[in-house]
Design goal:
By secondary structure, the protein is an all-alpha fold. Helix content is 60%, strand content 0%.
């Protein structure tokens, strides 16, 4: 990542993913056959449309998970990329409990970008949506 606070590049996201593959010894590796770096560029373009740090971070998180670019480790890659993005601004996700994070990431489709931005900034999320 650069000195300026910018969204990660497609190459940086792939690098993050490769580190996760190695760290976790993922069985299924690489980019899914029907996706490309262009797909990552589209995800990043979507996130750039937002005008606040947490909205961009939420869009990045949601889109990376939803598009399912990688064979395995999409949630871990998205969470890591989002945390690194926020770190550039000297902030971090408000929620740190691994189980709570995992639950939200598994259910990411139940939340819109604004709800996820709120969760990233203050830890609040609609628990009823998690219990469906």
């Amino acid at each position: 990542m650069t000195d300026e606070a910018t969204l990660p590049t497609p190459s940086e996201i792939i690098e993050i993913h490769e580190e996760i593959e190695e760290s976790y010894g993922l069985k299924y590796t690489g980019i899914s056959a029907h996706f490309s770096e262009q797909t990552l560029s589209n995800v990043l373009s979507d996130a750039e449309e937002y005008d606040s740090i947490h909205l961009r971070a939420a869009a990045l998180l949601r889109r990376l998970i939803s598009v399912h670019i990688f064979e395995d480790g999409n949630k871990r890659t998205a969470w890591t990329a989002t945390r690194l993005y926020l770190d550039q601004y000297g902030t971090e996700p408000a929620v740190r409990e691994p189980e709570r994070v995992a639950t939200v990431l598994r259910n990411i489709q139940r939340f819109d970008t604004e709800e996820l931005a709120k969760w990233l900034s203050n830890g609040e999320i609609d628990g009823e949506k998690l219990n469906r």
